[in-house]
Amino acid sequence: MHSTANTHGAIPGWSVLDSATAEFGIPKDALVLALRFADQTPEYPVFPAAENRLKVYLDLKDWVSLAKARLGRPQFPADQVAYEMLRATTAAHQVIAPLSATTYMEVAKISSLRQRTDLTDVITEISGFATITGRWIAVDHQLRTALAARYGGDAPAPIHPFGLGAMFAFGDSRVMVLKGKDAAVPGLPADVVKEMETTGRVLGEYMLLRGALPEDLPELRKLGYQPEAVAQMEQARLKRETDLAAMVADGTVDRSRLGNITAARHMFWELRQHLVPALADYGVGIDDFFDNGAEWLTAFLDDIPSAAVDITLHEKGFRNSYKKWTGNDVRDADALSAAIPYCQVVMTDKYAAAQLATSSAASKQGTLVLSRLSDLNAALPDMLPASSTGTP
Asked: How far apart are CA 12 and CA 221, in angstroms?
């Protein structure tokens, strides 16, 4: 591990971290970036500074490789190079490595506390808990933008696609603030309150990502903690994919109609709750909307970046007769549809990268999709800004 405190100057909240990090086994050097982000963001959890930096989204497999490198045990030399480069460029305010809701769900699925801890250490160090906004917010904004272009309305106000913390990643902008038992603001100097809030937020984010300790699980379950609920939801979504794949395989579904079928399924499962209220702004009913025809609707979906990515991955998967659908495919689609519209570089697995390489869903956004850290090492230096502002 490497200490970064000396290269960053005074660290917000550092004076009150010693006892907390010792008690919970948190390496202080991993918290530097997160503390700076939380302290210097003007309106937590919104993180507008991210929008002026190069955004690099990492797949869980890449975080695993970086965790091994952080521990001095890289599987490949390229992993160590990537770790050092990302560590340096995020610290220099050139690169942001944001997380998505999928990142949190994938880490939570790991049963080993040691593995979750190693991952949390490197994710904290390099991401600083920067996150991409929740799918609900992103898709609603993209859909309303596409409708405005077709019906002559005003484009919706811009959203902040980047923020800090898990709540922001799941579409919730509420934030922890320090209050007394009577809900009043503590009678402390403002700078002291801010330091306590900053430290509390960062420690809370770290412990949330790392997950519960085994000895705490019984008590947490009494309070309603149900980690298996996420897996159950994923299985329900996966069943929809495996059922359609089986129908394509046995000829029940006409393979030539897969494009329209996949688009219609996405409209029903992912967009219907956004579509009706958004159309109401134009006095357009849902039947009139669908009367525009298949070609118009396809073009409309292509102009919703998250939808275009998701539909591309699903349609290509269903066309591949050898494809065996897994939970990883569902999570990949979620992660890529969240990251590609807002990041310049997106890492994924080899299969997903190959599907997107033959589609305009990613290239239309100007996003570089890669599957290997060695490819990131080759591409990133030429994409970096010429200089850093030195601000968060």
From this structure: 34
CA dist 306 and 336 (Å) reads 8
What DSSP state is assigned to residue 15?
G
DSSP 202-231: HHHHHHHHH---GGGHHHHHHTT--THHHH
Whether the pLDDT of residue 147 is over 60: the answer is: yes
Which class for 27: exposed (0-12), middle (13-18), buried (19 or more C-beta within 10 A)? middle
Q: Residue 192 above 50 pLDDT? A: yes
DSSP 370: E
CB burial readout 80-107, b (16+ within 10 A) else e: bbbbebbbebbbbbbbbbbbbbbbbbbb
| Strands of 106-235, DSSP E | 130-132, 162-164
Q: Which residue is listed with tokens 């982000």?
A: 37
Q: What is the dihedral of CA 81, 82, 86, 89, to 10 degrees?
A: 50
Q: How many residues does the chain have?
A: 392
Q: How many CB atoms lie within 10 A of CB 1?
A: 12
* Residue 110 CB partners (closer than 8 Å, separation 6+): 116, 119
Average pLDDT, the chain: 89
Could you tell me whether strands 130-132 and 162-164 are parallel, antiparallel, or unpaired per DSSP bridges? antiparallel
Q: Tens digits of per-residue pLDDT, 148-160?
A: 999 999 999 999 9
70-73 long-range Cβ contacts below 8 angstroms, 24+ apart = 70/1, 70/118, 70/121, 70/122, 70/125, 71/1, 71/118
pTM: 0.91
User: Which whole-number Å values give the CA distances from 387 to 52, 76, 82, 102, 384, in the listed order?
Assistant: 12, 30, 20, 32, 8
**In Å, what is the CA distance from 169 to each residue of 56, 108, 205, 272, 343?**
16, 14, 12, 21, 15
Instruction: At 62, list the tokens.
Output: 């890449």
Residue type at position 100: S
Question: CB atoms < 10 A from the CB of 245, how many?
Answer: 18
Kind and range of the H or E element at 92? Answer: none
Conformational region of residue 109, where left means phi above 0, alpha means psi within -120 to 50, and beta covers everything else: alpha
- Span 58-81, average pLDDT: 98
Torsion over CA of 384, 387, 391 and 392, rounded to 10 degrees? 10
Tell me, what's the pLDDT at 175?
72
Dihedral over alpha carbons 17, 20, 22, 26 (to 10 degrees): -80
